[in-house]
Amino acid sequence: KNEVEQSPQNLTAQEGEFITINCSYSVGISALHWLQQHPGGGIVSLFMLSSGKKKHGRLIATINIQEKHSSLHITASHPRDSAVYICAVNSGGSNYKLTFGKGTLLTVNP
Amino acid sequence: NAGVTQTPKFQVLKTGQSMTLQCAQDMNHEYMSWYRQDPGMGLRLIHYSVGAGITDQGEVPNGYNVSRSTTEDFPLRLLSAAPSQTSVYFCASRVDRGAFGYTFGSGTRLTVV
After folding, report:
1. Contact state of B101 with A48 under an 8 Å Cβ cutoff
2. How far is CA B80 from the centre of its chain?
3. What sign does the dihedral B61-B65-B69-B72 (CA atoms) show?
4. Under an 8 A CB cutoff, do B48 and A96 touch?
5. Could you say which of B31, B90, B101 has the minimum Cβ distance to residue A33?
6. Which is nearest to B105 in space by CA: B58, B62, B43?
7. Which of A46, A64, A93, B104 shows a CA-CA span of 20 to 30 A to B80?
8. Model pLDDT for residues A15-56, shown as the tens digit of each residue
9. B67: burial class by Cβ within 10 Å (0-12, 13-18, 19+)?
10. Which residues of A touch B (CB under 8 A)?
């Protein structure tokens, strides 16, 4: 079993819909990261969380340490949000080494 | 522009050839790392460094060497390329502390034939 599991693997939405991507992990962590990768593109760090909730524009990330679960929400989705969203954790007492989920491919249709 | 610079962006190697993937950052980040990204496998850590002169192995280090002689540079060396090393390689850095995430380079797409 992977240490970091994401769901769903693929997600298709219509423009304007509210989107949720989930991440569950099975180890103790010091931080959880949400990353975005556009097709053929580089990787951008969206959020780093160790507790609670963070918001940036239309993106909201939450984490529940007790349940070992995090969610990434996108409000009022837009075709430019189409990308792979990757959850990653710092675990094993390391503030540096990342363990990644396999990503969620989001497609937002106009 | 501040950030992580990777070169080259594309490379084709023949089996057995060696090469160095370059990674440089100008943000004075202590931590630097190399990852490979393969379809269905996600991103996996190859090697990392927590400061100049300090390196350590990640999840998939075999066939790769690294060194960190300066804070800015963290090159990845393929000693004798194999088709299994065909992948997209990303370099990333971050500060030692604080609520800041990682900065990734734009990637190097390597094909070994």
Report:
1. yes
2. 16
3. negative
4. yes
5. B101
6. B43
7. B104
8. 999 999 999 999 889 899 999 999 888 899 999 999 999 999
9. middle
10. 33, 35, 41-48, 50, 86, 88, 95-103
